[in-house]
Design a protein that fits this description.
734 residues; alpha+beta; Jelly Rolls; Immunoglobulin-like; 5 domains; 8-stranded parallel β-sheet; globular; disordered N terminus; binds beta-D-galactopyranose
Length: 734
């Protein structure tokens, strides 16, 4: 009764127009939308917390919130249609809602299992519904009834308060710019959408700016109008080799107000590879004595191509047709030989050293992992399709070689002997491993030291040795070992929270892996707990995740890439890498529903540049069968990748941080320095690197190379325009 009692005290004009609690009842009845319904026996819930946290069973599917609202006193007389409407602001609702004002449906977000297209959660959408003022009662007593459906826990209204505000004339209009097509056919579509019940019309100004020079390339203006619930669409060509900014301003004639949008279409900086052979991968490879070698030389150029070697150590074999190296070497030592690749356009050679010893992963692993695209919907078919695409689209020619199955390959129970068993989506792991190895690719798998994985599949707890042996039988080359379900076991440990308690499960599996007659890249995934970078090498890990899970937003990229890696350079070295998580370029989605990465093109250049500087694991997380030319350009720039794969193995550190401007520098094996100049702010900027030379080494510079464009730049003029969230990646010599 609290809300109703409060309303009775104040005259209408002074009543609060923001509500923090409501009457609530679990269940579902059409009667509950009617204003006359007596909800006095219902309980009161807060609107800023899911119902699960307020004593309502998490299993609740339907629930109704009812609020008594005063008729708000709203400023009138803008002289437009907006005067006739109000906005009812509900905040976020988990998952689907139908909202009624005085018995009339004013909005719905998401869809119910009984709807035509089935259930669709929209838990993260903010609900603001437009409603005619005429729906509000003059006497001040209004009933807002919100029917909520929760498809899975948690549920309910959770970012309240609820409020009623004036309808802004242009609040229902949105300006968006999207692109489609590739290469010269790339076009950009500017859409003015309108969710409000009046037509907006006015002028759309479109300006294109060359982001390299800051010069305006073109300026046009069009008259457009969008009727209620309709879009106005303008399409323009937008193919460009250098970054071009499209800035749009729509000015509404009636209200004089405007809305803006800006967009940089995808632009391709990486020059096309020559048709003649070119070696794109590091000239070293680490393998343990007697372990099988699975390696494929990364050479771009037209096929067919022939591979030859001179001085190949005994025990190894080089496949002349595809450059796959196999065999093993029993004696520790450095074995240097020459590999030559030839095709119709020419010949190239690489002097290559196999280091037979204790250390593997002398450069960060490159490959693909199923998680960021398929999530738990991964299957053997999808994995093989990705491996095929890795080869067909030439990524293998740039050193991408691991094909890693993440969570969701495990059956619900072990066999009678306690052995881990695959589920129906993975018919034959050994056959998959063999298939990959024949192609010179490597096979990765996922498990947890806990009883269950994060996805709820079986983990390795109490079966560590058995699982390691299964991996060996299947030909596994990479294990991602994810803490997750181990959290429960950890809670039961007497020494929980100590370093020993964090190290223990990883030490155990590490020892079993090392006892196997093959090399398994050991990838720790425990989100950086207890500063794992300080002790990962102790359990013989080859990399350790330093953070929680990445997602395809700038916030995630910024926090994980820039903030959380800043102090970790001292912990990276050949064989031991900090892992800031997998790549978020291309089509991702963590499910069967894939979407284009939500990072802008500039953010994607920043992402790959930073991961190269960080000597990060380069595990592609997208569907490789749907790679576009832009994503291939990001992943297959041999000079950018050479920074990631530099054999000195030093990770970059930030050497300048001035507001939104950061410089990260990484020393390279040839004595030069890789330098990333980043703009992490929301405005474009112009930077003169000459002002910061002290931070990256001694002046003057002998050479400056733009690694994305693969072009030498002037050493006299070090001024660069860097767009918001963009980068300039350079290699400089002193
Ligand atoms: C998370 C891990 C993700 C993914 C997922 C699988 O803990 O960080 O990268 O492996 O588990 O369930």
């Amino acid at each position: 009764m609290a809300a109703i009692a409060a309303i009775a005290v104040f005259p209408p004009a002074l009543r609060a127009q923001s509500y923090t609690s409501a009457k609530f009842k679990a269940g579902d009845s059409p009667e509950w939308k009617t204003p006359a319904f007596d909800d006095s026996s219902w309980q009161t819930l807060q609107l800023n917390q899911v119902w699960d946290d307020q004593g309502i069973p998490a299993s609740t599917k339907f629930g109704w919130y009812r609020l008594k609202l005063a008729t708000p006193q709203l400023p009138a007389a803008t002289g437009t249609d907006a005067d006739k409407y109000v906005m009812v602001n509900l905040g976020k609702i988990d998952d689907v809602d139908e909202t009624y004002l005085n018995g009339t449906l004013i909005g719905k977000t998401g869809s119910l299992p009984t709807d035509k297209d089935g259930y669709r959660s929209r838990f993260s959408a903010t609900r603001s519904y437009i409603a005619p003022r005429s729906l509000l009662n003059k006497n001040g007593d209004n009933t807002l009834a919100v029917r909520v459906y929760s498809g899975g826990e948690p549920g309910g209204m959770y970012t309240g308060p609820v409020s009623i505000t004036p309808a802004g004339y242009l609040d229902g209009a949105k300006l968006a710019i999207t692109e489609s097509g590739e290469k010269a056919q790339r076009t950009c579509t500017i859409t003015l959408s309108n969710e409000f019940p009046w037509t907006v019309s006015g002028r759309l100004a479109i300006e294109m700016t060359d982001m390299e020079t800051g010069n305006v390339i073109s300026r046009t203006e069009r008259k457009i109008s969008a009727r209620p619930d309709k879009n106005a669409v303008v399409t323009i060509p937008c193919a460009a080799e250098e970054p071009v900014r499209i800035s749009c301003v729509f000015t509404d004639t009636k209200s004089g107000k405007n809305i803006t949008a800006r967009y940089t279409p995808k632009y391709i900086l990486t020059p096309a590879a020559p048709l003649s052979p070119r070696f794109n991968t590091a000239p070293v490879y680490g393998v343990r004595p007697g372990s099988p070698v699975h390696y494929r030389f990364g050479v771009s150029g037209e096929r067919p191509m022939q591979f030859k070697s001179a001085g190949l150590p005994a025990g190894l074999n080089l496949n002349a047709a595809d450059g796959v190296l196999s065999g093993s070497i029993a004696q520790p030592g450095d074995y240097t030989f020459t590999v030559t690749a030839s095709n119709a356009h020419g010949t190239a050679s690489q002097q290559f050293t196999i280091k037979v010893g204790d250390l593997i992963a002398l450069t960060p692993p490159m490959g693909w992992n199923s998680w960021n695209c398929w999530g738990l919907s991964v299957s053997q078919d999808k994995v093989m399709a990705s491996a095929e695409a890795l080869m067909d689209k030439g990524l293998v020619d740039y050193g991408y070689s691991y094909i890693n199955v993440d969570d969701a390959w495990e059956a619900p129970s072990r066999d009678a002997d306690g052995k881990i068993v695959v589920n129906e989506k993975f018919p034959d792991m050994k056959a998959l491993g063999d298939w990959l190895h024949e192609r010179g690719l490597k096979f990765g798998i996922y498990s947890s030291p806990g009883d269950f994985t994060c996805g709820g599949y079986l983990g390795s707890l109490d079966h560590e040795q058995q699982d390691a042996e299964s991996y060996n039988d299947w030909g596994v080359d990479y294990l991602k070992y994810d803490w997750c379900g181990y959290g429960r076991k950890h809670e039961t440990q007497k020494d929980k929270g100590t370093r020993a308690s964090y190290v223990r499960p990883y030490m155990l599996m590490g020892e079993y892996l090392r006892a196997l007659p093959r090399d398994i890249f050991y990838s720790l995934c425990q989100y950086g707990m207890d500063d794992v970078w300080e002790w990962g090498h102790v359990v013989d890990a080859n990399s350790w995740r330093t953070t929680g899970d990445i997602t395809d937003t700038w916030q995630s990229l910024y926090s994980i890439g820039f903030e959380q890696q800043a102090d970790l350079a001292p912990y990276a070295e050949p064989g031991r890498w900090n892992d800031p998580d997998m790549l978020i370029v291309g089509k991702v989605g963590w499910s069967n529903n894939l979407r284009d990465s939500r990072l802008t093109p500039d953010e994607q250049y920043t992402h790959i540049s930073l991961w190269a500087l960080l000597a990060a694991n380069m595990l592609i997380g997208c569907d490789l069968s749907q790679l576009d030319d832009f994503t291939i350009n990001l992943l297959c720039n041999n000079e950018v990748n050479a920074v990631n794969q530099d054999i000195l193995g030093k990770q970059a550190s930030p050497v300048v941080k001035e507001g939104a401007f950061q410089i990260w520098a990484r020393p390279l094996a040839d004595g030069s320095t890789a330098v990333g100049i980043f703009n992490v702010g929301d405005d474009d900027m112009t930077v003169n690197l000459a002002d910061y030379l002290g931070a990256i080494g001694n002046q003057p510079l002998k050479s400056v190379r733009d690694l994305w464009r693969q072009k030498d730049l002037s050493t006299a003029d070090l001024t660069y325009n860097i767009p918001t969230h963009g980068v300039r990646l350079l290699k400089v010599t002193h």
